[in-house]
Amino acid sequence: MNGNELLFNIGPVPSVPIVGRKDRFPVHRIYCVGRNYAAHAREMGKDPEKEPPFFFLKPADAVLPGGGNMHYPPGTENLHHEIEMVVAIQGEGRNIPAAKALDYVYGYAVGLDMTRRDLQFKARDMGRPWDFGKAFDESAPVAAIHPVASHGHHSMGKISLKVNGEMRQAADLQEMIWNVQDTIAYLSDYYLLKPGDLIFTGTPAGVGAVKKGDQMIGSVEGLGELSVTLV
Ligand code: MN
């Protein structure tokens, strides 16, 4: 033993494919915005005028790269889909001004913030943390990242989710309460943002339950599709 060997091999760094590249995007942290679309805040029983968006995190290895099969998670009888645009961060910074925030964006992707709604609401109602409802294994399916260098920025366009071919969520990115710049600026006042961070930017209205065997197809205009099947 040279003093540098690890007791366990805990496996490779979680990563997400990148459109047009062989390299993958390594995942450092996963930040998520809560209630960033007014209609979704209202369907959760909250008033978006009174309560601004807020954040929670998922572990990096909750990512399900490229979608595909997702195992129905334990401990829930009410697993919900939340279609979201995901922002991939390439720069390190804190106190980032909104006017500079887009310089920190590597690219964008389609993602799903899968949620054990029964456990989330139980925690919410008891004033407890959301981790059991939000931060579980495979809870963050993310499709291939579209780099800004080749695909530009994404601040408008359709965002939607179909379950077994039926439209469940449909909105426009412009409906976000905090846009990408404001989100990065706000987060960076509380955390040191780093290359490899992913930010889930919130879901529009229409969230609902899915069950084993269901196929979800999410899309964001210009960013392709994310397909996830519950097994
Ligand atoms: Mn969400």
The count of helical stretches stands at: 5
Biggest sheet: strands, sense, closure?
A: 6 strands, mixed
The best one-word shape is globular
Broad structural category: alpha+beta
**Head-to-tail CA distance between termini:** 42 Å
User: Mean pLDDT, as a whole number?
Assistant: 96
Which stretches are low in confidence, meaning pLDDT under 50 for 5 or more residues running?
none
Question: In CATH, what is the class?
Answer: Alpha Beta
Count structural domains.
1
How do the strands line up in the largest sheet?
4-3-15-8-9-12
Task: Classify the fold: give the CATH topology.
Answer: Fumarylacetoacetate hydrolase, domain 2
Radius of gyration: 17 Å
Q: What proportion of the residues form beta strands (DSSP E)? A: 25-35%
Kindly report the name of the CATH homologous superfamily: Fumarylacetoacetase-like, C-terminal domain
H/E element sequence: EEEHEEEEEEEHHEEHEEHEEEE
Structure description:
The chain has a six-stranded mixed sheet. It has a five-stranded mixed sheet with strand order 6-18-17-13-14, with no helix packed on it. A three-stranded antiparallel sheet has the order 10-7-16. With 231 residues, it is α+β, with helices and mostly antiparallel strands. It is globular and about 50 Å long. The model has no long low-confidence stretch (mean pLDDT 96). The chain has five helices and 18 strands. The relative contact order is 0.26. Strand 1 (15-17) and strand 2 (24-26) form a beta hairpin. The chain binds manganese (II) ion.
